[in-house]
Amino acid sequence: MSSNVTRRLVLRGTAVAVAGAALVTPTAMAAARTATAGMTGHGGHDGHGGHGAPAAFDEVYQGRRIVGKPATGEHAAHGGFSASIDGKELHLMQNADGTWISVVNHYETFATPLAVTRAAVDKLRGAVLVPIAT
Amino acid sequence: MAVRKNQATLSATEKRNFVNALLELKRTGVYDGFVRTHNEFIMSDTDNGDRVGHRSPSFLPWHRRFLIQFEQELQKIDASVTLPYWDWTVDRTANSSIWGADFLGGNGRSRDSQVTTGPFAYSTGKWNINVSVDNRPFLQRELGAGSAQLPTRAQVDAVLAMTTYDMAPWNSASDGFRNNLEGWRGQGRVHNSVHVWIGGQMATGVSPNDPAFWLHHCFIDKLWADWQRMHPTSPYLPAGGTANVVDLNDTMRPWNNVTPADMLDHTKFYTYDR
Ligand SMILES: [Cu+2]
């Protein structure tokens, strides 16, 4: 019982996705992605798209450690937020309407840095982010 | 004059010639240079900063110039080749002939989205993904698996009916023809949702890794030409003096010798079959 509570606290709202990870179908993943991308239905900890700074996060999602935090310098131009998946940078960009995209989901907008980072994890299917060769 | 055709009307020989020219550009590394260039602009084009290739008025002339340059490279391999376009308002399922093994190859397999059929399958050894956001070396597709639908003809017609080319703030928040076609707003999210519908690399910043990129953007280019014919008195905007965006007579990176004005009349370079 108590370990369940602890786990839920650590995972901060990702319990459904993690519990279903082993048997999740692409359709179910798409549905989860849509729900995550929407502005509604979230507890407020990641619902700040468009006004104010988005909340930092540090959690395990689908077995991947995802971390997001306000950034300075180079990243400030792209919305002032940086994210990583298992320690590798995920390039994020904020749109004029406050929504977010990443280099992995470049043509689809998400409400928060957390949502777009989780979407990248879904798309990676275990693959590792690499800096793009230039 | 080169004629760009609907991909659904290509003969077996025309398909083969196009595919072979793509494979040759891939072999020599020329192809990956285009992927790299596109991604550099994807990364640097921002709503509040300098923007050239995307989320800005020059989205259409920039991609027109990009496609012309790519088509010229194809034609160095085979002078008979032109870019085909894919009308996704008509050919809109994973079973459409565009995804045949004789042309672009099919959907990715369920296990890892890897394309395993056609000339761009990893097993051929001729289509490794070298310019990538992750460590997967194979082409991926997830046709229709995400939340995006292909735009309908009615949605496209609604965008074509818009009379103003673009408007302030000249970015992904703008109303007007350009941004509704690019798909940062509006019904159908036209151009963007096609990238998402295909999935795999097409949904990422390195989208030209999938040859479908060229057929998709060729249709977007045709829709711009169709719009110009429908609205002959609607000019490219902005005309001048606008911060961070490419005005009518400003030059566009990376070429620095071509302006939107130079790109307005595509018939100097090619025509469409209809
Ligand atoms: Cu595109």
From TrEMBL, chain B:
<dbReference type="InterPro" id="IPR002227">
    <property type="entry name" value="Tyrosinase_Cu-bd"/>
</dbReference>
<dbReference type="GO" id="GO:0046872">
    <property type="term" value="F:metal ion binding"/>
</dbReference>
<keyword id="KW-0186">Copper</keyword>
<keyword id="KW-0560">Oxidoreductase</keyword>
<comment type="similarity">
    <text>Belongs to the tyrosinase family.</text>
</comment>
<feature type="domain" description="Tyrosinase copper-binding">
    <location>
        <begin position="54"/>
        <end position="71"/>
    </location>
</feature>
<dbReference type="InterPro" id="IPR008922">
    <property type="entry name" value="Di-copper_centre_dom_sf"/>
</dbReference>
<dbReference type="Pfam" id="PF00264">
    <property type="entry name" value="Tyrosinase"/>
</dbReference>
<protein>
    <submittedName>
        <fullName>Tyrosinase</fullName>
        <ecNumber>1.14.18.1</ecNumber>
    </submittedName>
</protein>
<feature type="domain" description="Tyrosinase copper-binding">
    <location>
        <begin position="210"/>
        <end position="221"/>
    </location>
</feature>
<dbReference type="InterPro" id="IPR050316">
    <property type="entry name" value="Tyrosinase/Hemocyanin"/>
</dbReference>
<keyword id="KW-0479">Metal-binding</keyword>
<dbReference type="GO" id="GO:0004503">
    <property type="term" value="F:tyrosinase activity"/>
</dbReference>
